[in-house]
Amino acid sequence: MSKKRGNGEGNMRKRPDGLWEQTFMLGYGTDGKRKRKSFYGKTQREVKAKVAEFRHQQAMGLTIDPDIPFTEWADTWYAGHQDQVSAVTYESYRYTLIALKEAFGTRKLRSIKPLDVEIFLKSKQKEKSESAVKKYRVMLYQIFHKAEANDLIIKNPVRFADKLKRKKIESTKDAFTREEVAILFRQLPDNRLGHTIRLMIGTGLRLQEIVCLEQEHIAPDGSMIHVRQAAENIKGRTVLNPGHTKSQLSKRDIPVPAFVRGSALFLRVNANPYAWDGREPGSVYNMRTFRAKYTTMMSKIEGVRPLTPHCCRHTYVTNLQSLNVPLEVIAGLTGHSEIETTRGYLHIRPEAAIKVSETYSRELAGLFW
């Protein structure tokens, strides 16, 4: 004779798919219908362990409504994810989350199927970039993965959704021509903005790296720049994140070509404490304002296309490629964000980097004067 189950102990059964399931009633909803909770596992012991953990959470008041809507769970996931990423990344997640909440709304989390995920991603593929669609999928996966781990759903629907075919789009990164570079070096003013643009073209520094350079990051003779930190835009404000760069590989030492060492020295002498100081003491200049000043200056120089500040970096890479500099050396000098190459080759010898700087100077300096 089977043992009689206690009140709330639930019903254990083996499903057709081989999983064990235990279901019991939690009570009644506002509509008067019974509310049930199910746990799944490969063995009865695994299921019983999950039930015991749930009972413990019940006693502590930590349980989650199994009928939780997507929007509510997405907000819970977002709040708990804050300490997993940098502040700027966390802020960027908010816009992706808004799109997901608009798409799935108050639907019950467990009602969303792989087909729903596929339909959503396909709709976004028609209007968004490939990288944006990838962000949607990744965030959806993380949201549902957390739900699966908390037994709110049986399986993650994103894991079973078909992956979209990649769009075949030719990606081009524009760069200033040698003629444009020559015009810029002749006509850019002898001030902080002019020397910053020259140095970006001559070293490939990112905007977020060059604005927060300090005196100690630039050699006394202007021959070397030590990239050790970067600025970030958070909610419209530019802030310094000490010790942070775009990646660990972005921390690097860049030999400065002879024809732009004067620009490096100009920024070193005028750094107080940064190459670009903000309005408040000790703050970094707002990068949005910098871009506006850059755009205004470029519009006044005839014979030069109005390319973005980041195109100065592309110009540096393009010029090094034209000199047949090995890709692994370029990757080391630029911090590996622009060149796809094997990570094992990123640690270049200092003498190789200096040789590139000297070659760059010999090949290009004659254009500027």
Your description of this structure?
With 369 residues, the chain is mainly alpha-helical. The protein is 46% helix and 11% strand. The chain contains 14 helices and 7 strands. It has helices at residues 44-60, 70-80, 87-104, 114-125, 130-149, 157-160, 178-187, 192-203, 207-210, 261-270, 287-299, 310-322, 327-334, 350-368; strands at residues 11-14, 20-28, 34-41, 224-227, 230-234, 237-241, 252-255. A 3-stranded antiparallel β-sheet has the order 1-2-3. Helix 8 packs parallel to helix 12. It is elongated and about 85 Å long. The relative contact order is 0.09.
Report the uncertain regions: 1-8, 337-349
Mean of all residue-level pLDDT scores: 82
Give the biggest beta sheet.
3 strands, antiparallel
How many β-strands, per DSSP? 7
Rg, rounded, reads: 28 Å
In DSSP terms (H or I, runs of 4 or more residues), the helix count works out at 14
The structural class is mainly alpha
Strand content: 5-15%
Strand order of the largest sheet: 1-2-3
Helix content: 40-55%
How far apart the termini lie comes to 100 Å
Shape summary:
elongated
Element pattern in H and E: EEEHHHHHHHHHEEEEHHHHH
Offer a quick outline of the entry:
The chain has about 375 residues and is mainly alpha-helical.
Task: Give the SSE layout.
Blueprint: E1 11-14, E2 20-28, E3 34-41, H1 44-60, H2 70-80, H3 87-104, H4 114-125, H5 130-149, H6 157-160, H7 178-187, H8 192-203, H9 207-210, E4 224-227, E5 230-234, E6 237-241, E7 252-255, H10 261-270, H11 287-299, H12 310-322, H13 327-334, H14 350-368
Antiparallel strand pairs: 1-2, 2-3, 4-7, 5-6
Helix pairs in contact: 2-3, 2-5, 3-5, 4-5, 8-10, 8-12
